[in-house]
Amino acid sequence: MACELLPTGNAPRYILLYEAAEGGAGVLRRLLKDPQAFPAVAREALRICHFNPDTGEDEGHAPGVSEICEAACYDCLLSYSNQLVHRLLDRKAIRDILMDFQSGIVSIAPAATPRTEHLAQLNRLCSSKLEESWLSFLEDNDLHLPSSAQGFIETCKTRPDFFYEEHNAAIYIDGPPHQYPERKQRDLTQTACMEDRGYVVIRFGMNDDWGSIVKKYPTFSGVASEFCGRISRQRPRTRVGCPARVRS
User: Fold this and answer.
1) Global pTM?
2) Among 18, 64, 184, 209, which has the minimal tally of Cβ within 10 Å of its Cβ?
3) Contact, 61 vs 50, CB < 8 A?
């Protein structure tokens, strides 16, 4: 497993956890299907953070180490890769949450996340005003919202701005930096890599007619109204649900 701060490391709002192995190793699937897996992860996290998993008692340091760990150390939370946020890390801040997680049960939500809530989640993951404008464009025109945002595709070393999981479609919202020749070439290389692996790549430039672009993809969900068409004003408005989320 690996993790990244989103939307940026300088202004994090979320921690994205993903399988680092190409094609995945089934870790996330096991966390969903094995009722004992997630509590076991929480228990191990408590141990790593120098807490007794049974009582929650602070043991103060790792086994065999005499120096007391106040907030974080290289035996628990600190690493070279997260040194930019060392000042924010505090193992004690997560103890109670991990203790609760030990008795938690992971299950897939029985209903889709409400559209307004899903839209808010996507907006929080945006790294630019242009991405926020694109989401507003979808909302204003009753178009399908993407299922996720800012996911990293390890095999192609690229991070699409948004993703439609059901259709394996990667969305890029290209701002001013994408006008430079070097960036354009990198975009072409990444697009070719993604398409070679079966992804549908769709780019929305800041000067493009976004309405014309979505009209080119009427088959995302069968009929135009489901991805690229407006929902009829003569009938009651129907919101299309988003994928079920995982709750613990």
Assistant:
1) 0.58
2) 64
3) yes
Give the separation between CA 149 and CA 172, rounded to whole angstroms: 10
10 φ, ψ (degrees, to nearest 5)? -80, -25
The answer to whether the beta carbons of residues 56 and 99 sit under 8 Å apart is: yes
Q: What is the pLDDT of residues 165-206, one digit of tens each?
A: 878 899 999 988 888 888 889 999 999 999 999 999 999 999
**Rounded distance between C-alpha atoms, residue 238 and residue 14, angstroms:** 30
What contacts 24+ positions apart, CB below 8 Å, involve 218-224? 220/144, 220/164, 220/167, 220/169, 221/144, 221/166, 221/167
| Stretch 227-241: mean pLDDT | 33
Task: For residue 147, count other CB atoms closer than 10 A to its CB.
Answer: 18
Token pair for 105: 């049960």
Q: Tell me the pairing of strands 162-164 and 200-205.
A: unpaired
Q: What is the pLDDT of residues 90-146, one digit of tens each?
A: 999 999 999 999 988 777 766 677 888 899 999 999 989 999 999 999 888 888 888
Contacts of 183 (CB under 8 A, 6+ apart): 177
CB contact at 8 A, 131 and 71? no
Helix, strand, or coil (residue 98):
helix
Confidence of residue 218 (pLDDT cuts 50, 70, 90): low
DSSP states of 108-153:
E-SSPPPHHHHHHHHHHH--SHHHHHHHHHHHHTTPPPPSEES--B
